[in-house]
Amino acid sequence: MKRIYFDHSATTPVNREVAESMLEYMTEKYGNPSSVHSFGRETRKAVEEAREKVAALINAAPNEIIFTSGGTEGDNLAIKGVAYGNRKKGNHIITTAIEHHAVLHTCEYLEKQGFTVTYLPVDEHAMISMDDLRNAITDKTILISIMFANNEVGTIQPVKEIGQLAKEKGIYFHTDAVQAVGNCPIDVKELNIDLLTMSGHKFHASKGVGALYVRRGVKVEEIQHGGGHERNMRAGTENVPGIVGLGKAAEIARRDMDEKVVFIKGLRDKIIAGITEKIPHIRLNGHPEMRMPGNVNFSFLYIEGESLLLNLDLKGIAASSGSACTSGSLDPSHVLLSMGLSHEVAHGSLRVSLGRGNTEEEVDFFLAVLPEIVERLRSMSPLYGSAADFKPSNPCSSCHHH
Ligand SMILES: *Cc1c(COP(=O)(O)O)cnc(C)c1O
């Protein structure tokens, strides 16, 4: 069976050119970049060239890039680093209710350390309100951490306005741009971003490598102690093959950006139009316009996202849902609940995230099999057909309640 990969927000395949660039930094050029001999010098050079490419992708300076092990570490370093480095100025952080857990759990940890955190609500499209943000700022606020684009529903936040406001108020602005980097053009100078997290495996580099952009002059305290690597901000021998691959992926992303965005948007809009036309009782989750080029997220009323996933998987199609059964919990996504969806509607959600390698034929196949699967699952649902009894505000029986 031909397999179709529609889960690029979870991870992406490593580009072949990227993988090839990495190989010689494992087998032949294996020096430690901190060594003074020729083996060390050649890997140091490769690391610094990668830094230039990563910086160029977001219009930063090379010395504003710190290599990390990925998105989770970048978020931790940005948020804890600013919190600990600036606690004399204040102890208040503003973030949103729909962040990735790498941000949310870091903020919750900091609350236990004596910081106070405001979690901004979002509207039905997962968008924050600039008024809410403005009103949340106090003279103790040291950091605003708001994601660039949401990983589940694809909503893109008003990053430029947030950056402008943060700059006016003298507050640092961090954005988790893990979903956005490589998928939409980003200029950290134009957007007034002070710190930005990216992760290699979300844009065709390998897992376990990423970068944090820290604008020159931003005070960040290191959270991992050891050698003086990465300008004392991130101790540990550099992941040279990973970093070389990240540089290559950044170079390719920058080169192909415009073409890629147009292509992926085309597939996305075809799926959105196809589902809207063919399937009743659905809800498009996320913002209709301000959304990631490759993100599709729908709720299908009266069915469970997990059953939908399993049935698609039987057809060779890999997608994702808004409840985290696989991680041992049936709780629906905090993002969908924050948008005001009931438990039932949140449970019936499906995310399709597209990438460069997807084709029109794959989209056509998906649109051909999906309506039949949805209809079959609905025909087995006790709620379907007796829609009068269906009260979307009732929590469903399969959820764990807190
Ligand atoms: C994937 C992801 C992360 C985590 O990145 P890792 O490199 O997997 O640790 C953080 N934030 C967002 C928005 C993500 O999509």
TrEMBL record:
One Gene Ontology term of the molecular function aspect: 2 iron, 2 sulfur cluster binding
Binding, [2Fe-2S] cluster: C325
Parts of the chain that traverse the membrane: none
Chain sites annotated for binding pyridoxal 5'-phosphate: G71, T72, N151, Q179, S199, G200, H201, T237
Domain Aminotransferase class V residues, every copy: 4-365
Keywords tagged on the record: 2Fe-2S, Cytoplasm, Iron, Iron-sulfur, Metal-binding, Pyridoxal phosphate, Transferase
Subcellular location: Cytoplasm
Pathway(s) of this molecule: Cofactor biosynthesis; iron-sulfur cluster biosynthesis
Coiled-coil region(s): none
Function according to Swiss-Prot or TrEMBL: Master enzyme that delivers sulfur to a number of partners involved in Fe-S cluster assembly, tRNA modification or cofactor biosynthesis. Catalyzes the removal of elemental sulfur atoms from cysteine to produce alanine. Functions as a sulfur delivery protein for Fe-S cluster synthesis onto IscU, an Fe-S scaffold assembly protein, as well as other S acceptor proteins.
Protein name: Cysteine desulfurase IscS
Organism, scientific name: Sporomusa termitida
Taxonomic lineage of the native organism: Bacteria, Bacillati, Bacillota, Negativicutes, Selenomonadales
Name of the gene: iscS_1
